[in-house]
């Protein structure tokens, strides 16, 4: 079972699915932008977990790495009623007049613009981003809010309940991802981010691996080239070099498991191994366990690199299940 996180968890309304709305600079999987007019803006901190949603779907979650602040101007849209001037207005697609004020209940065709000095915030979360593999309706968050502030763009979630839900929604990959976020164990040689950091020249590296191995996943064998990723075996390397002896081709879903130490290769037998604790929770993954590596002996990656990844995975497994030796 995934433990709750010792960090704040926020539900963040994003406009990533509304490209026509140019007032927001959100980029899904990279950053979340907001301003000082938003309630709870000052409460979000580095290390907090952001659950990114819109009005209909929840897309995934990430951990705040940095928050940039800069002065700016925000154009508010207000009710034209002189005694109201509320910003709590909604656009109605099928009714006329188009707009309605939720405070004074007045309807009108055009809101009154008002420029306001604000601080603009940009929270970056890309290195610890997890996107849900399937559609998640926003209603799943309804019972997790810590308060009744239903109209706020940034709303606090109950941490332990949110953690359990995120693990359920994300399935097997979220299981490990959230365990790592819990901070129970650091990956050998540094942070787990080093296993998944992007390196310059990734596409060229992938092409060289395809030349070396053919369109072959190391675990599942021949696959369509489009579904294959280049997996690095240099998690502890200080030099960002794309070494063909330090890479394998893996199907995209298996690549993510490999990077998260959920899947590894046993250098003694050259077979794939899946974390036993996870196999018990997800029996279907047994299809990827103890499979002979589909790579010819003469082009296998360096054994020392396979050993390093295998050791890191086994250490992770001991943390997930103490009985593993």
Automatic annotation (TrEMBL):
Protein name, UniProt field: HNH nuclease domain-containing protein
Boundaries of every HNH nuclease domain copy: 217-266
Classification of source organism: Bacteria, Bacillati, Actinomycetota, Actinomycetes, Micrococcales
Pfam (any one): HNH_2
């Amino acid at each position: 079972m995934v433990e709750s996180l010792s960090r704040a968890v926020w539900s963040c309304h994003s406009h990533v699915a509304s490209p026509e709305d140019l007032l927001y600079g959100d980029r899904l999987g990279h950053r979340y932008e907001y301003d000082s007019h938003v309630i709870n803006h000052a409460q979000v901190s580095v290390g907090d977990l952001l659950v990114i949603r819109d009005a209909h779907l929840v897309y995934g979650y990430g951990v705040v790495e940095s928050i940039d602040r800069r002065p700016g101007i925000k154009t508010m849209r207000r009710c034209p009623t002189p005694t109201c001037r509320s910003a709590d207005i909604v656009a109605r697609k099928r009714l006329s007049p188009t707009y309605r004020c939720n405070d004074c209940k007045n309807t009108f065709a055009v809101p009154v613009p008002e420029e306001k000095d604000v601080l603009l915030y940009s929270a970056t979360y890309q290195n610890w981003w997890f996107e849900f593999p399937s559609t998640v309706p926003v209603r799943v968050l309804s019972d997790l809010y810590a308060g009744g502030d239903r109209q706020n763009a940034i709303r606090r979630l109950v941490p332990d309940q949110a953690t359990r839900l995120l693990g359920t929604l994300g399935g097997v990959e979220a299981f490990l991802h959230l365990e790592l976020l819990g901070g129970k164990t650091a990956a050998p040689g540094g942070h787990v981010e080093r296993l998944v950091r992007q390196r310059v020249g990734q596409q060229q590296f992938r092409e060289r691996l395809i030349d070396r191995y053919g369109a072959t996943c190391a675990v599942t064998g021949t696959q369509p080239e489009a579904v294959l990723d280049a997996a690095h075996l240099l998690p502890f390397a200080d030099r960002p070099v794309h070494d063909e002896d330090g890479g394998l081709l893996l199907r995209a879903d298996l690549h993510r498991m490999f990077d998260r130490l959920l899947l590894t290769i046993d250098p003694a037998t050259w077979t794939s191994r899946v974390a036993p604790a996870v196999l018990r929770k997800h029996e279907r993954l047994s299809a990827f366990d103890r499979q002979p590596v589909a790579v010819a002996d003469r082009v296998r990656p360096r054994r020392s690199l396979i050993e390093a990844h295998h050791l890191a995975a086994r250490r992770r497994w001991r943390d997930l299940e103490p009985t593993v030796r």
